[in-house]
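Quick question: what would this complex look like in 3D?
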Amino acid sequence: MLAMTESTGFLDGIVRGTPVVQRRAMAKAITLLESTRPDHRQQADALLTRLLPHTGGAFRLGISGVPGVGKSTFIEALGLYLIGQGHRVAVLAVDPSSSVSGGSILGDKTRMEHLSVHEKAYIRPSPSSGTLGGVAEKTREAMLVCEAAGYDVVIVETVGVGQSETAVHGMTDMFCLLQLPNAGDDLQAIKKGVMELADLVVINKADIDPDAATRARAQITSSLRLLGLHGNPDHVHHDQKVWHPQVIQISALHGQGVDTFWSAVSEFKRLQTANGRLAARRQHQASAWMWERIDAGLKQRFREHPRVREALDLFTRQVQAGELAASTAARQLLERFD
Amino acid sequence: MLAMTESTGFLDGIVRGTPVVQRRAMAKAITLLESTRPDHRQQADALLTRLLPHTGGAFRLGISGVPGVGKSTFIEALGLYLIGQGHRVAVLAVDPSSSVSGGSILGDKTRMEHLSVHEKAYIRPSPSSGTLGGVAEKTREAMLVCEAAGYDVVIVETVGVGQSETAVHGMTDMFCLLQLPNAGDDLQAIKKGVMELADLVVINKADIDPDAATRARAQITSSLRLLGLHGNPDHVHHDQKVWHPQVIQISALHGQGVDTFWSAVSEFKRLQTANGRLAARRQHQASAWMWERIDAGLKQRFREHPRVREALDLFTRQVQAGELAASTAARQLLERFD
């Protein structure tokens, strides 16, 4: 079977190859996983299944922030710091706008000029599959390839287009939000729902306005408390310590605070491993991911069904115009889908 | 056709009946809408379609808050105040726990003893359909019945079980969150994601601890600003005024602040009508509602499909155990669904 042979070849190269062979096998594997050709998809699934036993060993770190917050500078500084500590670092990206705009992040590797050429780093720009669900799925699969290749820190970056923070939060162990010191000002927009995804808020460029950074830190800390993190219904015994979201200040450009950042990440990892939340988060992510893809597939089939297609536009207009009840429209469209 | 005759009879009673006839027709209609019998469902859809031209005239107000915050007292005070201003007030509830527990809210009308017996008020407990989606759908349909009957303020109450705040937010023009004065303390849990749904936060029982209430107000105001409401991607021209979430203090038990509350609601309504957001919100809600019901229907069919059913448990376990990639499992299950 060609598919099996191919995927076995990839697998050996990825898991056991010399640096050069490994890098080539990773690129080939990720290209296969990103392909939309049905026969490739079968090979890709065979490869994924064989890769899985070799995955899960990395710490998966999500990093988000608006353009200009200094993500590339921070990730470069962090990556080099981690390599200095003996880690191997992969950097992936989720950018649903890339198919339209040609990519707003990581399209240009020169933005991380030292990290991108380092042999212990692997940087891959965002796939350009159009929909967020598609882009996120490809990135999630690329993450597994990196883990199988022995990268023990995988950073997934996003600029926060649409719901991309939620997607990155849903595939990482820890989600970090980069902020500018003027976070409390009207100048800086934070999208609804993003702050509360954060396990760690990082105020970058703190050196530019230390007073503002300190005020922002106090304000965000207080808001995070108020945001109901204590009401989080996760199941942890009362005698177990849990992580509470924190706010730290750094200045990535001057290399300040990267060690503080990594201490916080390590403490997060230690606590959430001990109380079982890290494992529970991954398990939950895996089922949620499966259902997300099932939902997307079901909805696509539904939209493409001939009898649904011929009525969907009219029904949608009637529902929006208040001429047809939403629940009635849903029932009648579902009857057409058989 | 029996269905048409029946629904026409209901319709006349609801829209034009004397108070007694109307109340009886409303109760019958809502019971029909809540029925799960397939033949009833057809009649219900026919009724809904005929009701629709008579709906949409009410202001739809969502009110949420944890048990003990004083929702019933507040809604009773508000309802009587509004009736005094010439309004007719309907109170509905979304309580997904009601099918299990027998209902934790509005099961006992005596909790609003004056409002519940007032001829200008209509109070209906939460339907008990089991799933949140089902409960919310029935409540949304009951709201249409109330509007067709000329109730011009519809209050939808929830205690916030599961995602019920999101459901209520998705069917109302304005979402208000009741809080106790100690909102900033660890004592009071706010669920993740709820604060940012709020158009208005109401600190009730402010008289008990005025200092705490003032502190809470300042803190919540600051958090709401930080929460990124300025980053809300809604489409409004820059020269148009938009509503920014506010925080007010009241003491419902002593009847204090109900007028302040209603002023805020009226200002919200005025602004959001002028800038078009109210209409846009309803239109968005209608499509979102249709798709929510389609998704629920598709997922139910998927789960009940014989070839999916025989594999779903095994695949789910394998995905959670990390033996099968989530995306692979999704694709293979979708192949079984035909």
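Answer marked as accepted. Confidence is low (pLDDT under 50) at residues 1-5, 99-107, 229-237 of chain B.
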